[in-house]
C-alpha cells in the first residue's frame, strides 16, 4: 500500500494528502447506485410508454357468428388495466365475482416498505412474492393451532410521499387474526412495522374497484414498474369469490389492426360490403 509520501510524490513533494479520485466512479457508491437506478427507471418507462402507445393504436375487429357481414371494431385498451376503459371492464368482472360479499365486516391491515431498508425498484418487483410469503407465514401459525384458514383479498397502492408500493389486506368475517408480533415477524427483510388490524365493514367489489380508479392518478413511472414486473394489482383467496359461468359469445375475433383513425377503418370496411355494429363496447370475445 502506498504511504502518504508516495501519494505526494516523495519527501518534500507536492501536497500532503492523496489525490481525490472522481467521486462518481470511486468514492460515492450511493451516487453511482442512484444514477444507475435512474437510468434503469428511464429505460423501463421508455419501454412501457412504447408498449402503451402500441395498445392505444391497436383495434380488434369481431365478426358476428350468425351474420358474417356484421363487424364490430373495439379498441384493445378495453382489455388493459393501463387505460380507463380497461379498468372499467375489470371493475365489472370483480363485481360479478365478489357481488355477494356486500357490507362484509372483517379486519384490515396495511403492509408498508421502509425506503431506508429496500430500494424502490426491488420493492415493486417483489411486493407480490412478499405478500404471499406473509400470508403463508400467518396461515402456518393459525394451522398449528387448528384455526380456520384465512380468506382474504389484497390490493396494491402507491404510497404517498415515497412512491413505494403498499399492500392493503382485508380478511372478511374475521375477529381475530394473530398477535401483532407475529404479523411483524412475518413482514421482515427490512420492511417497516405492520399496523394493528382494524375492524371495518366493506363492499368487497367496491373496495378493489376504488383502488383501480385511483390508478388514474398514478405516475407513468409507477405504472411502468407494475408493468415491467408483471405484477398483479389485486388478488383474493380461493373460495372467496363466486364462480361465474361464462356465456358463449355471439362474436368471433376476425382481425387485429393498428391505426389511430377508427373512422377511416370503419369507412374502408363499409365500402368493402360490411356493416359496422356500434352497439355496446363491452368485450364480445376472448
Short description:
The chain is an alpha+beta fold and 286 residues long.
Main attributes of the structure:
Alpha-Beta Plaits, five-stranded antiparallel beta sheet, four-stranded mixed beta sheet, 286 residues, 41% helix, alpha+beta, 9 strands
Low-confidence stretches at least 5 residues in length (pLDDT < 50)?
1-27
Largest sheet: 5 strands, antiparallel
CATH domain fold name of the domain at 100-236: Alpha-Beta Plaits
- The number of E-state strands comes to 9
Q: Architecture of the domain at 100-236, according to CATH? A: 2-Layer Sandwich
Task: Give the spatial strand order of the biggest sheet.
Answer: 6-3-5-4-7
Strand content: 15-25%
What number is the mean pLDDT?
80
Radius of gyration: 27 Å
Q: Sketch the topology as an H/E string, one letter per element.
A: HHHEEHEHEEHEHHEEHE
State the secondary-structure class.
alpha+beta
Basic shape: flat
What proportion of the residues is helical, as a percent range?
Answer: 40-55%
Distance between the termini: 68 Å
* Helical segment count: 9
CATH superfamily (homologous) name of the domain at 100-236: Crispr-associated protein, domain 1
**Can you identify the CATH class of the domain at 100-236?**
Alpha Beta
Topology (elements, then pairings):
Layout: H1 4-8, H2 23-27, H3 29-57, E1 58-64, E2 67-75, H4 84-98, E3 104-111, H5 120-144, E4 153-158, E5 165-172, H6 180-186, E6 198-202, H7 204-214, H8 220-228, E7 234-236, E8 251-258, H9 262-271, E9 275-276
Parallel strand pairs: 2-9
Antiparallel strand pairs: 1-2, 1-8, 3-5, 3-6, 4-5, 4-7
Helix pairs in contact: 3-8, 4-7
